[in-house]
Amino acid sequence: MTTAFTFPGQGSQSVGMGKELADAFPEAREVFAEVDDALGEKLSTIMWEGPEETLTLTAKAQPALMAVSVAVMRVLEAKGFKLAEKASHVAGHSLGEYSAHCAAGTFSLADTARLLRIRGNAMQAAVPVGEGAMAAILGLEVGDVEFVCDAAAGETGTVCQIANDNGGGQLVISGAKAAVERAAALATDKGARRALMLPVSAPFHSALMAPAADAMREALSQVTVNAPSVPVIANVTVAPVTEPGEIVDRLVEQVTGQVRWRETVEWFAGSGVTTLVEAGSGKVLTGLARRIDKALAGVAINNPADIEAFLQANA
Hints:
The protein is α/β, with parallel strands linked by helices. It has helices at residues 19-24, 26-39, 43-49, 52-55, 58-78, 83-86, 96-103, 109-125, 142-156, 177-189, 210-220, 244-256, 261-270, 284-292, 304-313, and strands spanning 3-7, 89-92, 132-138, 160-167, 170-176, 194-197, 232-233, 240-241, 275-279, 297-301.
């Protein structure tokens, strides 16, 4: 099989996402209703009506993005497209790794929604507001960014590390605010095209998230973890996981570890994948894949027209 599915992470949310799916397909409506029930709130109303600042909150955006991704997959399944028969692997960007596991049957939909609510709240609570930061570094190689992170961490005596390697010369760093600001300045001195502080509320995917990692290990111990129907490529190891105990370990490590997305796309290309299908809100991962390996075909599915076109192409 030469197709793999990917699932987007935070930043792909937008007011109105999933509404066309819910209007067109009963399977999608069932997904959004089940997520609402699992969380005890009308998350779907926030998704479709906003306000945007509420949808952007980490504890709202994470289960909301997962719901759209899983709605796409449930509609495809209802129309005869079986993930286990048609895809070699799945992967997701940060919270999207949970979407990938839900799509592959590792977790139930309700458990995935609750896990992501816990994850969002725990990540937000791990570091007091204003003490952590993240920055996008554009136009430097990984080694150069590692160098400036180490230099800034050494100068300030605290944490600064690469959080995301998104490919195409786009890296995101995370850690204590003073260290990240210093690293951004050093990156500019080293020739970065841009070093941009990001409007985020916490230093995600850094060692400062250790309390959130502990919270996720506890939360994951309370749910049923099945072997996925399709191997899931873990963010932190860029390797397939299928065994429930290892899945839990990788998801816990992911909270403080790096999202190695460039390497994930390269792994797909090196493993015979020729088409990456992005299921869910937006087209961020499709754009990243194009920059990482132009030989990979990219397809984004997030509305009824996309679904019909995909099914026709894969009949």
